[in-house]
Design a protein that fits this description.
Elements (H helix, E strand, L loop, with lengths): L2 H9 L2 H35 L10 E4 L8 E3 L1 H34 L9 H17 L1
Antiparallel strand pairs: 1-2
Helix pairs in contact: 2-3
Length: about 140
């Protein structure tokens, strides 16, 4: 089997495609949550604590000298990233909880037995006729 055919077999497996779709959706979801935190949650929170913009919170470790930029410890962006993570983790937790509940309900649903095939029906009729002849 050539390298290309092996890669093709690997890439088109259902799990691989599902994983790729999940990664793409996850990246888009991460951008949405980052925007939610940065543009919707943090501004009112900053106003509540005295007009502070969290993305501007930083400690200057070394001032800019000439062409060298300042060395800054941007802890406000770190706080914002922590809030992003908490929201994403909570959303994933809720999604997994919903999926697990759906799986439990699906597993609990009674499975209807399949209808007998033509062969089974004919064999049952033959068996019944043979029983009648013996009586």
């Amino acid at each position: 089997m050539s390298f290309i055919s092996e890669f093709k077999a690997f890439a088109v497996k259902g799990n691989m495609v599902d994983m790729a779709v999940g990664i793409i959706i996850g990246a888009a979801f991460g951008k949405i949550v980052s925007s939610l935190v940065a543009d919707v949650i943090m501004p009112p929170l900053g106003v509540l604590i005295g007009g502070v913009d969290f993305s501007d919170l930083a400690i200057v470790l070394k001032q800019a000298v000439g062409d060298a930029p300042a060395v800054v410890l941007a802890y406000g962006k770190f706080i914002q990233s922590i809030i992003d993570f908490i929201i994403i983790a909570f959303a994933i937790f809720m999604a997994i909880k919903l999926i697990n509940r759906m799986r439990r309900e699906e597993a609990a649903a009674p499975e209807t037995p399949p209808a007998p095939t033509k062969e089974e029906t004919l064999l049952t009729e033959i068996r019944d006729l043979l029983k009648q002849q013996r009586l």
